[in-house]
Amino acid sequence: MKSHSSIRVAISYLKKQKLLLGSALFWRSIHELAPMQVPIFTGIVIDGLTNEKVSMYGLNWSPESSLIVLQIAAIGLLVVALLRGSSAYAWTYSSAKLSRNFVTELRKKLIEKITFLSLDVHHQYGPGDLLDRTLRDTATTRAFMERVFVQTFTSFLRMGYPILMLILIDPILTGIALSVIPPQQLISRYLEKKLHVATQKSRESDSDLMSAVKENLDGIETIQTLNSEITSIDRLGGKTDRLEVDQLHANRVTALLRGTVWLLTGIGFALTWWRGGLLVIDKEMTIGTLVVFTGFVKYAYRPFRLFTGIVKAYRRGLVSLERIHDVLDTPSSIREKQNAHPISISKGRMELRNVSFAYGSQPVLKDINLTLEPHSLIAIVGGSGSGKSSLLRLIVRLYDPSRGSVLIDDQAIDEVTLKSLRSQMSVVPQSPILFSGTVYENICLAKPDASRQEVKEACRFSSAQEFIERLEDGLDTYLGPGGTSLSGGEAQRITIARALLNLPKIMLMDEPTSSLDADSEAILLQSLLELKKNMTIVVASHRLETIRHADKIVVMEHGRVILEGTHSALLERSEVYRELFSNGRFTA
Fold first, then answer.
1. For every residue of 388-411, which 3-state class applies, written as one string?
2. 494 and 533 in a common domain
3. pTM across the whole model
4. For residue range 180-222, what is the model confidence (pLDDT) as tens digits?
5. Do residues 217 and 239 share a domain?
C-alpha cells in the first residue's frame, strides 16, 4: 500500500506535466527506433554485394546494381544518424527538465512540510534523518523519473518493434530466440523482491550514518574536550561498516539479476545463430537476412539487459519515495481547528488551567493553575528539569498540554490560528540560534520589511548596538553558519534584538541573560522594565538581578508550581524560597 501511495505522488505530478512528458516520450521513441533500422540497411548491403535478392521490411526485390543498394543504404544510415543525434538531444533535455522539476517540486513540498511539523515529530525523526530525506532521497527520485517512467514507457515500443520484425522474417526462429525470456522473467521477479528489501536496509543504514555524522559535527567541541575522538571514530566506523555490508548485499542481488539476464540472453543468441546458420546452409535464408534477424534479436534482448539498471533505479527511487511519503503523510500534533479564528491580544493576560504535559510517557508538568497578569515582568524560577522551559513552549503552542487549557486574554489558544498567535509573541530561546547571513538579515527574520531605524532601536534595547557598531560592516557584517564568528553573549543579544523588533504583546524569554556580562544584563533589564508598559514579559531565569525586579515570581519544582509572589514577600514569608538562595540556586 505504501508503494502504491508513493507511486501516486509521481503520477499526480506527471498528470500536470503532460506536454513535457509527451515530448520526452516522443523523442525517446525516435531515439530507440532510429538505430533499429541499421540491421535493415546492413542486411541489404550484404545481399546486394553478393548479388542476391534483397529483403527490406519483409519485401523482396532484385536491384539493378550493387551501387544502387549502396546508395540507398548510405542515405538510410545518414537519416538514422540525423534522427539519432537530434532525438538524443531532445529527449535528454526534456527528460532532464521533467525529472528536475519533479525533484524541485518534491523538495519544496518536503521543506514546507518539515517547517510546519510540530517539534515532537522533529525529535522523532531527528535532524540528520530529515536532512537525508530532503536532499538525498529527493535526488534519488530523479533517476526514478527518468529511467523508470520515461524509459519504461518506451520499452514497450523498444521490445514490440523488433519482435514484430522478427515474426515477419521467421516466426519459428523468433520462437527459438525468445524462448529464454519466460524463465528470465520468473527469476527477475523473484530477485526484484529481494532487491527492494536490500535497498530499504541500505538506505536506512545510510540515513543512520548521516544522522550520526551530523551529531558528531554538532558536538565536535564536546568530543574533543572529553578526549573521546577515538570512541567517536569507532562508533562512526561501525556504522560505516554496516552501511558497506548492506550496500554490498544490495549490489550482490543486482549482480545476480544482471548475470542471469546476460546468461539467458546469451544462450538465446547462441540458439539463434545455430538455427539461423542451418537455414542459410539449407538455402532457406540469405546471409543478409540472418544478419538482419540477429540484429533485431539484439534489440529485442536489449530492454531485458537494460532491465537490471531500470530495476535498480526503480527500487532505489521507490524506497526514497516511500521515505519521503512517510514524512509528507505524518500529521503534526499541533493542528489548527477548522473553525480557528485569529486571536486578538489587547492586554496579554495569560492563564493556565489544570495544565498537565508529558513528553511521551514522561510527565513534565502536573496540574498547573497559574495566572500571569498583563504589562508585568514575571520570573519563572526552579531547578533543572522543573518544567520552566516546557511551560513557555506551551504558551507559544509549540506543544499542546495533555490535559487542561492555556488562555490568553480569555481566549483558548487551541481555538485560534497559529499564525495570529505567534505573530503577536516573541520567544528568546535558551541557546541563541543564528543563521548564515548578515546581522541585519538575522534580526529581520520575523519582520523582513523592518527599516534600519527599527533594527537599530531593537539593538539598543538588547544592548547589542555597541558591539555591532564595532563590527567591520556593522549591521551588514556577514555571519557564518550558526553565527560562529560571534561570542555567546553577542549572539544572545542579537537573538533578543530579533525578538524585540516585532514589538510583541507577549515576550517569552528562556534564560536570556545567561551569556551576558553584568553591564549588558543591567542594560537589558532596564529595557525590559521599560518595555513591560507595552507588553507582558515572562522570563525563565536563575539570575538574581532579574528575579529581584520581577513583579511576580513563580517557583517551580518537579513540574509543579509551589510558590508565587514578589521577591521581598517570598523572602519574608517562605522558608522554601529562602533555602533556594542558601542552596545556590540563584546567581548574582
1. HHHHHHHHCCCCCCCEEEEEECCE
2. no
3. 0.72
4. 888 887 887 888 788 888 888 888 888 888 878 877 777 776 6
5. yes
